[in-house]
Amino acid sequence: MPESTHPAQPAAQWVCTSEALEERGRAVAFDVLQYREPARAFALRFDGQVVAYLNRCAHVPTEMDWQEGEFLDRDKRYIMCSIHGAVYDPLTGRCVTGMCGRMGLTKLEVQEREGKVYWYPSRDTRPVFED
Ligand code: FES
C-alpha cells in the first residue's frame, strides 16, 4: 500500500517485511515501470543493508537470477548474472568483473523502517499502479 510523503515526492511503495529478506538470502522481486516499460526489480539484504536493483544485466538487458530470487554467487559475496557470469558488488551495483565492463546495475532507492521495506520511485522508475 502506498504511503504518502511529501506531495512533490513519489509515494513510498511497500516491498516486503524486513523478515522476508534474510542476510544474503533469496531476493524479493517486484514490478516497476522503467521509462513506462514494465521491468522486474529485486530487493535483497547484504551485510545487514537492504538494497534494490532492476533485474537487468548491464551486458545484455536480461534478467539475471539463477532461480527465482537467487542472485548471489556460490560464496554469497557478489551478485552474479546467470547468463554470462558478470559480477556485481551487492552494495553498490558496480561491475566487479566480467561482461559488464564499466557498467553497473540500476539501483533503486529503498529504506527499511519499523520492520518494513519501502521502495521510493524516481522520475524514471515508477510504480506499475500509481494512485
Ligand atoms: S547477460 Fe549478464 S553477463 Fe551477459
From TrEMBL:
Signal peptide: none annotated. Residues 14-119 form the Rieske domain. Coiled coil: none annotated. The lineage of its organism: Bacteria, Pseudomonadati, Pseudomonadota, Betaproteobacteria, Burkholderiales. This is Rieske 2Fe-2S domain-containing protein. Keywords: 2Fe-2S, Iron, Iron-sulfur, Metal-binding. It comes from Roseateles koreensis.
